[in-house]
Amino acid sequence: MAEKTDAPTSSSTDAGSGPRVTDGASAPKAIIKNVDMSEEMQQESVDIASAALEKYNIEKDIAAQIKKEFDRRHGPTWHVVVGKNFGSYVTHEPEKKRIALLGSFPASWALVRPDGTETREIEYTSERQRAIIRIEKTAFAPELAELFFHSEQPTIVSSVKLIQSTDIYSWLAGWLLSSSEEQQQQGDVKIDIICPATDDHIRKYSPQKYTLVRETPELYASVVRPYIESLPPARTRWVTKILSGEAEQKAVLFSSPEFILLPDMKWDRHTIGSLYLVAIARDPTLRSLRDLRLEHVSLLKSIRKEAYRVVQEKWGLPTGSLRMWIHYQPSYYHFHIHIANASYEGPGFGMVVGQAHLLEDVISLLETAATSGIDIFERMTLTYGLGEQHGLYQAMIEAQGSLD
């Protein structure tokens, strides 16, 4: 349920630092809880937040200037890690847990560019449950980023719509103030929320340095495989819920006894040029590239075939229009294949050397090595980039000294 906050007297800034709040009200806070809320509580939250939002009188010229700047610039996604104290507008779907949608953020946050060129961090300690919010747009202006997350000024995100959610992942479309008519259907920004955010989630999205490491079959057996086996089932519960039919069934594009195909959370589901799908194998014993054997070639070829069939039927994309790859190390240890429009060359899809292995190459390696009776991915030394926040980092770095 939304909470009223103490209203400051009046605050204002000049045009260079953001919009002015001419009314004395401050942005209300909405708190995510791990319980469903009743329809009465839901409506009360919406009514309180809506009433507070109506009090804001944002100068139109400043809002238009912000929007123009966003449309003019082209930059990378900003990753935001905050304490769970955000939102000025709460909505709910009967079959889903409570979701707090984006309104305003507290002043304590960490804002980083994925390429590491700029970092703004404030140490934040809170007893509230943590959340990770990712907001994506092709034209984020660094000097305007604070206006998304300011606690004492109105947010420039005017409304949001829940696209989909699982037990910890939520995907939303957001609309900025002064949106053009053409943008009304698609939304100005794409918002991803992970809540509750574990330490592993936060490490993943924290700024970090990467080091190239070599993983021999012996290191896999002594370091990597024990690490994978030590991970609790809860880490991939959201995957098993999809596979079991408990979540995201409306989004599934293809399902068979061997795998399912559905949109990846990184795709906005509108822009075909950045189309991004994911195929998830049903076999729980398949965890990563290391587990692939000749017997899995039929699965890999079936995924390739069905992916092309689906994109041809739904979006008219021909053979050769898709780039398919497998990450190693993957972000989660349940075997999956990334599928994207081959024309997309932007950031955020993890297509870098040392991480992505093209599906076509993987199939060829499996088939070629089989003629010699070799399980190639069991015998190969794999080289990849490992971030210092990864759970394997320390052990793998220490082990590098023992390699030739």
UniProtKB/TrEMBL annotation:
Listed GO MF terms: hydrolase activity; RNA 7-methylguanosine cap binding
Keywords: Cytoplasm, Cytoskeleton, Dynein, Microtubule, Motor protein, mRNA transport, Nucleus, Protein transport, Transport
Protein name, per record: Dynein light chain 1, cytoplasmic
Subcellular localization(s) per the UniProt record: Cytoplasm, Cytoskeleton; Nucleus
Signal peptide: none
Gene3D superfamilies: HIT-like, Protein Inhibitor Of Neuronal Nitric Oxide Synthase
Predominant place of localization: cytoplasm
Record GO biological process: deadenylation-dependent decapping of nuclear-transcribed mRNA; microtubule-based process; mRNA transport; protein transport
Gene source species: Armillaria ostoyae
